[in-house]
Amino acid sequence: MNAKTILVTGGAGYIGSHACVELLQDGFKVVVVDNLSNSKIESLNRVQQITGKKPSFYQTDIRDKQALADIFAKESPTTVIHFAGLKAVGESCDKPQLYYNNNVYGTLVLTDVMMHANVKQLVFSSSATVYGESSCPQYTENFPLGAINPYGRSKAMIEDILRDLSAADRNNQSKYPWKIALLRYFNPIGAHESGLIGEDPNGIPNNLMPYVAQVAIGKLKQLSIFGNDYPTPDGTGIRDYIHVVDLVKGHINAIAALNSESYKCGGCNAYNLGTGKGYSVLEIIDAFQKVTGKPINYKIAPRRSGDLAECFANPELALKELNWKVEKDLHDMVTDTWNWQTKNPQGYI
Ligand code: NAD
Ligand code: UDP
């Protein structure tokens, strides 16, 4: 049993709540800091229902420096997993200030408080959106970065800040250097197999999977497929969908790596978390129809601006350095999404 305390920012959210389950089941103590701007406390009640254990919870904004410092003093975490952030690409284009303030300034406050508390192990939720457009659709960590919207740029800026913090410690030969894993997620979907926690988007979903699920259950009438004239086998966009439970297990492996010999002298490294395999929009619809037996009503709509034709991960570095690989397939992702959706047609209420 591991009694280390992990502080999870954004732990009431979609990915954070799944991380809480895995951490608690692995014997960690969990402290959640979340302002509930995009989540409900019910998610943490469900975490307790699944695990029989309760994470400590603080309804706090990570930009509230004093409150955050008090939490660090009281809870003495060894490591932070930093999920807290706003994530809607379209909204980030309308409200860039909000995104840079919440995501970038929020991370500056968090890392400042961590430094003062001498807690310098961090696992950060980055995103495949930090990559620039590439002629090769399979993305490797050393590909050039070039986010094309404020959300993606907020993630890229945070990565830069974290790399600089680590470099400063290296230059100063710090005795207690930053150890940071930047986890670049591809497309997380699915839900815990219990159907008790899952993705509960506010309003009309932007992402494909929750949209398809809401069409299947009759909450939405019709899916628009954004373009069927891409240079892909069926003309629709291809993405690397990853089961959220596989994804959060990558964070646990990252914590182990940060505590291992390979990070003895500190460091800040990026890892792709994806399956390495892409599926098209039509393949996702087909898989959903097969699992649920429900027809998905769709129409072909124009391309969505900023979308790439094809994007999937090269996950070899995460296998090599984090000893991590996915265990679940598309059938699991769709089955678990549908289980969550049918058990919680209105999300958390
Ligand atoms: P989510 O919105 O469900 O969870 C984020 C949580 O952070 C929410 O509970 C929200 O209330 C909280 N939060 C936001 N700003 C905060 C602040 N200033 N102080 C305290 N709490 C705050 O999103 P998610 O899908 O679970 O994503 C988690 C992280 O992973 C985000 O940083 C997101 O950008 C990143 N990410 C998500 C995806 C995806 O497709 N879901 C893909 C790549 C990266
Ligand atoms: N997509 C779609 N209709 C939707 C939402 C998404 O056709 O209502 C497509 C989108 O063009 C992309 C894929 O589904 O090819 C995944 O989109 P999503 O927004 O889920 O993820 P991201 O674009 O961030 O990879």
Q: TL;DR of this structure?
A:
The chain is of the alpha/beta class.
The main pleated sheet reads as: 7 strands, parallel
CATH topology of one domain: Rossmann fold
Gap between N and C termini, in Å?
34 Å
Globally, the shape reads globular
CATH architecture of one domain: 3-Layer(aba) Sandwich
Within the largest sheet, what's the order of strands? 3-2-1-4-5-7-12
Question: What's the average pLDDT?
Answer: 96
Can you offer a commentary on this structure?
- This protein has a domain of 243 residues: NAD(P)-binding Rossmann-like Domain (Rossmann fold, 3-Layer(aba) Sandwich), CATH 3.40.50.
- By secondary structure, the chain is an alpha/beta fold.
- It is 40% helix and 18% strand.
- Strands 3-2-1-4-5-7-12 form a seven-stranded parallel beta sheet, sandwiched between helices. The protein has a four-stranded mixed beta sheet with strand order 6-15-10-13. The protein has a two-stranded parallel sheet with strand order 8-11.
- The protein has eleven helices and 15 strands.
- The two termini are 34 Å apart.
- Helix 1 packs across helix 8 and helix 5 packs parallel to helix 6.
- The model has no long low-confidence stretch (mean pLDDT 96).
- The structure holds nicotinamide-adenine-dinucleotide and uridine-5'-diphosphate.
